Amino acid sequence: MQIGMVGLGKMGGKMAERLRRGGHDVVGYDRDPAVSDVSSLEELAERLQAPRAVWVMVPSGEPTRATIEALAGVLSPGDLIVDGGNSHYVDDQRHGAELSAKGIGFVDCGVSGGVWGLENGYALMVGGEPAEVERVMPIFQTLKPEGEDGFVHAGSIGAGHFAKMVHNGIEYGMMQAFAEGWELLEASDIVKDVPGAFKSWRQGTVIRSWLLDLMVRALEEDPDLERLEGYAQDSGEGRWTVKAAVDLAVPLPVITAALYARFASRQDDSPAMKVVAALRNQFGGHAVTSRAGSVEKGADSPGADVAPPPEATG
Amino acid sequence: MQIGMVGLGKMGGKMAERLRRGGHDVVGYDRDPAVSDVSSLEELAERLQAPRAVWVMVPSGEPTRATIEALAGVLSPGDLIVDGGNSHYVDDQRHGAELSAKGIGFVDCGVSGGVWGLENGYALMVGGEPAEVERVMPIFQTLKPEGEDGFVHAGSIGAGHFAKMVHNGIEYGMMQAFAEGWELLEASDIVKDVPGAFKSWRQGTVIRSWLLDLMVRALEEDPDLERLEGYAQDSGEGRWTVKAAVDLAVPLPVITAALYARFASRQDDSPAMKVVAALRNQFGGHAVTSRAGSVEKGADSPGADVAPPPEATG
Amino acid sequence: MQIGMVGLGKMGGKMAERLRRGGHDVVGYDRDPAVSDVSSLEELAERLQAPRAVWVMVPSGEPTRATIEALAGVLSPGDLIVDGGNSHYVDDQRHGAELSAKGIGFVDCGVSGGVWGLENGYALMVGGEPAEVERVMPIFQTLKPEGEDGFVHAGSIGAGHFAKMVHNGIEYGMMQAFAEGWELLEASDIVKDVPGAFKSWRQGTVIRSWLLDLMVRALEEDPDLERLEGYAQDSGEGRWTVKAAVDLAVPLPVITAALYARFASRQDDSPAMKVVAALRNQFGGHAVTSRAGSVEKGADSPGADVAPPPEATG
Amino acid sequence: MQIGMVGLGKMGGKMAERLRRGGHDVVGYDRDPAVSDVSSLEELAERLQAPRAVWVMVPSGEPTRATIEALAGVLSPGDLIVDGGNSHYVDDQRHGAELSAKGIGFVDCGVSGGVWGLENGYALMVGGEPAEVERVMPIFQTLKPEGEDGFVHAGSIGAGHFAKMVHNGIEYGMMQAFAEGWELLEASDIVKDVPGAFKSWRQGTVIRSWLLDLMVRALEEDPDLERLEGYAQDSGEGRWTVKAAVDLAVPLPVITAALYARFASRQDDSPAMKVVAALRNQFGGHAVTSRAGSVEKGADSPGADVAPPPEATG
Fold this sequence. Notes:
The structure is a homotetramer of 314-residue chains.
Chain A: E1 2-6, H1 10-21, E2 25-29, H2 41-47, E3 53-56, H3 62-74, E4 80-83, H4 89-101, E5 105-112, H5 117-120, E6 123-127, H6 130-135, H7 137-143, E7 151-155, H8 159-187, H9 194-200, H10 210-221, H11 237-248, H12 253-265, H13 271-284
Organism (chains A, B, C, D): Streptosporangium longisporum
Keywords (chains A, B, C, D): Gluconate utilization, Oxidoreductase
Pfam family, one (chains A, B, C, D): 6PGD
């Protein structure tokens, strides 16, 4: 079928390619004229036959919002927009209502697959009215991986991105679980072949998974991960997961701990730990590492006392 | 090769069967004469040709300890014991030292695979001296899954069980991550097809894994998990993981949270939360759910005041 | 000075009383005519001399919003509203902007003190323009405790409730710390006199605090907290604290854990733990506690095997 | 009464002084002859009249163990040793049994009070047989603060240090709660007067406490805590608390999070976060901060694509 694709970056460009390989007629628009088939959204609308379907694949938040608003200005009643970006489900619900007022349909679609999607297909989690989801089903069929899985129509508008958000929350927890296991193995001197242990787990174990496969690959390239810093961004979906859980009074200790570990990894120094150091200094005369690099003698400072006394307290 | 197998329960029995299918000569001993090839450990030692190899597959802790001590009394210098149970790595180190004093070799082997191992093979994590590991390599080769993974000689004595312990710690974190994701999806009314979302994730996503496959199977059998209670045992290895981390000053927030969630699941009522309720009652006159089922009127109790006031505090 | 007080419930009624004892002229309004000085907000506005000051002391959220909107309709430019409820700081900023457009001033004030405030005074955390805060300073001076502390002008509009929100977040963490300590003492059979231990900590220790005093009182009334269920509400400010932290990428592991413990305390059964139970059942044939109360025999079920085998895994 | 004091460091020296001010006859021993009253433990035993009482105030672990063993060699049946250090309760139970075999009594005593104890008294948590505790009660009476609290006979041997251990666990949680609150206030730009907010909380609030007083003092000396690094030791008792909880299946999310925050504060770089970074790089081509300081272009790297695409995943 024919579809417009707005945003031909790393994700959108590859998805357009997979769709073309699948026989679809893709008209692409991007701010970069070098990769764009049309020079404007107006031209995109002209090139597409009504009723039109346009897939939006730009960053979530303001860029997606601006793109959907601009499209609403050039599309017609009966047309349909699919938001394939990483939008917040709350934004979906607003977008759906605004477009509905203009007679334009809206489907949200969470996409997983990353750089591997072109060849292997993209996992798609979709929200929207059944009739509208049905209209773009040929597109979904081509984008998704072969086989019976990799696609779900999860519910009405917002359900696709909500499901994708929870997927990412689970991913945060799984990644942190592997990370903690690796750190513990490295900290102990008992297991000598840590990459070998990870590799061995790929068969016959409970934790075998694609993330484990990636972990093995990473350790093959850099067995002690010496070339990396312990620094991790978060993409927003982890935060939304935690905030949704707080709103729903659902305890998420593991996913939240994984998110907080990422927050902490980006701090040069922990502000909270300055407070702990300050309090320890106040009540116990504990040794404190000061900015100047000198160390004050404290109760637990070796050599401070002839017979080193026990600490007064923690 | 020839091997003795002590403990022919659910795990040991199936492992003996897999070994026999692989052409090995297994002499089994169990307390239950109905499944045992010999009537005593003495007879087991007689039936095996020196230098003997005996695989111990009984519960960790006291049963394993007692079995190894009894074997030490009937085996000879040059013989070898493999502990395939879920022993603590600290116990391994003690067992290894005690057996070494008698000239008996010792190898520890963490085993993963559960009820699926007979057909698919068992993942094996092994610790011990290279020469001793080499002696029982034919056994390991038969037990492990086909393919290049599923086996690691992780280090010296204790390294096998340490690696298995960490594997289980990672498993705790992964399971809890899936569990939290499911709870959040169920708590929200946005995603209508929760089993469908999990099923869709089996292809093209970052979280695809054997645990996800099992989750899909569980949801196929019982879509809302209505037939289960939210109650989970822990097997000891999660506890050892956390204690090892505490000893090594390694922060394990996710694995620990997963362990604590299991602890909490087994409490009829949370003692800690009684304290929180008691304190809230003391400072704020907050509504308290008492044992008697009656609810005292408190500051946040609707109807307690004509114009319900804000809470004084948390 | 003269002030209107809207909301004469448990908090507002006592604050009005403390203000009258301090010589202020308080005109109170409540939906309950039995405690109200005037029959409507219109009459309240008539009774107060311009420029008027009105303290709003009703539940946060919709009741506060509706009250402020209604007051905006009866007050005049130059008047001032103080929101003493537990409002979200984001609501304050909206209320401030809306009132400013009508020439009406706005000050937000977080209040701590609970049922003890009438006698001991209320801790006040205030946000707003300096000139407007100054106008109601006589009121703050009377409400606050004697002494140099108990009052802060923390910043512009929203700062008062933000500071109160963080105060409550800290309170959540402290309460949970005491709660965990008590649970651990009770779980061990080493310390026989748990109430005595708490009482002893009131002097000379690092943890002496008002919450400890309350804890001692609670244990005097009910030494084993038998009369309470482990069930705790949360007032909203804990949730806002966590959400603010997530927005600001600040890790709050302790405050969040305290909030989640409250969430979990209100669940009859943990949905997440059903998943853990289901997964354990899938991979290991682990014993599962089913709704029907029967227990399936599993790998770790005593008696399931003649020589109980080790668990396959966690 | 007469008492020997072994260990005259920062804690023991001040305790000896408080005892002398209280009229007791203290014979002190320290490895440093400059502060010691006797030149050896033998001489200490000679100087004390039987039945002797000796207070041991040296670091926990090996120093305490060695001191108690040495004392056991010079004391006589009927004598009594008090361990006032921060010993593990498990060590107490071993020491008690070993001394009992020689007819020597043993009392364990957890001490809180730090550098403030000389003037204000020390909080004492005591374990042991009633008759033996009674024998040294005059010493406890002088050491403890004035007033009815500050002392508990918590149970038999080990109960004193167990209670002190839990006290310190609670302390960890409380300190972290204040620390997180401060970090959140600092991270937001809404509250301008953070030290003022803390100071205000000293009266009328739920969180007023000695730790808050110390926090206010610390912020008076260094309002932004600029002179400190976010680096905190742990004294061992936090670790024991967590391990005791794991043994007893008691969930301690807050105290554990506080301990882990200290562990993390001492890491230059988080090993676990290297794994998260490595995995993100593997699956998403996410930007990675490498050791060399250069940043690889990734999916979320501004400028990497003309229309920046959404991330494939978290």
